[in-house]
Design brief:
CATH topology of the largest domain: Arc Repressor Mutant, subunit A
Strand order of the largest sheet: 4-3-5
Shape: globular
Largest sheet: 3 strands, mixed
Structural class: alpha+beta
Oligomer: single chain
Radius of gyration: 16 Å
Length: about 130
């Protein structure tokens, strides 16, 4: 995660980051807009601009399969190589940041002639808690 302080963020960026940090589950842009409507965010482009910058700074991740966003949970996050474990039952998402994993993915990509710039892996299944309930 970037060491950037919230003082360096715009008001909208700080609001979006706070909303995501307080949420126990990933949030869609429209859910973020609903939560922050009373704070002056009125239009989707305001949320998307804030999200784009927060992603660029490594403070937020986009979950492609859920079309949702979450704040970075790993202090040693490798922003260009991220993996997520997503529970399909309770929507719990765990961020996985592992340098050996990143190296392995880079080697695999390079074997195909690709110079990787970013990779995001999403593994769906059922978390331990939901497995006990099922």
């Amino acid at each position: 995660m970037s060491s950037l302080s919230s003082n360096n963020l715009t008001k909208n960026q700080a609001l979006v980051l706070t909303a995501l940090s307080r949420s126990s589950n990933p949030m869609t842009a429209y859910h973020i807009l609903d939560v922050l409507h009373t704070y002056g965010l009125r239009a989707p482009p305001q949320v998307y601009r804030a999200l784009d910058k927060l992603i660029e700074l490594g403070l937020v991740h986009r979950l492609e399969s859920l079309n949702a966003f979450m704040s970075c949970q790993q202090p040693d996050c490798l922003p260009n190589t991220i993996a997520f474990a997503i529970c399909d039952q309770c929507d719990n998402v765990r961020e996985i940041s592992d340098s050996s994993f990143a190296i392995h993915l880079k080697v695999i990509a390079e074997k195909t002639g690709l110079k990787p710039s970013k990779s995001t892996i999403e593994v769906h299944g059922m978390c331990k808690t939901c497995q006990k309930i099922d």
